[in-house]
Amino acid sequence: MKKLKILVGSKNPVKVAAAKTVFELYYPDHEIDCLGLHAPSKVPDQPIGEDETRIGAENRVIFLQANHDADFYCAMEGGAADFSFGPATFAYVVIANRDHTSIGRSSNLPLPPVFYQALLSGEELGNVLDNAFNTTNVKQKGGAIGLLTHHHATRESTYTQALTLAMAPFNFPELYIGV
User: Fold this and answer.
1) H/E element, 110
2) Which listed site, 58, 71, 139, 170, has its alpha carbon 20 to 30 Å from 37?
3) Contact indicator for 7, 73 with CB cutoff of 8 Å
4) pLDDT, tens digit, for every residue of 53-87?
5) For residue 5, what are the CA distances in angstroms to 18, 39, 71, 104, 175?
6) CA 70-74-80 angle, 5° bins
7) Cα 145 from Cα 127, distance rounded (Å)
8) Three-class SS of residue 43?
9) Which candidate, 172, 160, 166, 154, places its Cα nearest to that of 22?
10) pTM over cut 0.90
């Protein structure tokens, strides 16, 4: 059986599990070796805005590529922004191999304005949620998505969907690369 080495720019088990799920889906005839490693985002712990969030994910992948050898590199960065319809949290995902990088984004989860204000004051969403819902380390579990949807969706399911979509250029490189 062929083996694929996948590196994830985080030791968060939710992010590693999402990446492993996606690569097992796309490469069922391969043994997937998926490992989470520390990779600095070089953005604040709680990114605000789409650009800061995307750059954090990109920086994690760039760090992995510069310091490790793998078949694929992945990163997920959660952020928040105040859109015209109100505050929301979301994530950017980046997947890269030696030849190509693909960037994707998750759907938005509306945030209560009081939570968003706490983020603007410098708090991390996971800590805000732990305080509001009396949970512990929710960011390594279902996250805001799990809590605010009564666990009909989870942080992992959202990462999985975004990563699944970001794989499109690797499925049809002739349509994406060199265009």
Assistant:
1) strand 109-110
2) 170
3) yes
4) 999 999 999 999 999 999 999 999 999 999 999 99
5) 15, 16, 5, 21, 25
6) 165
7) 14
8) coil
9) 160
10) yes
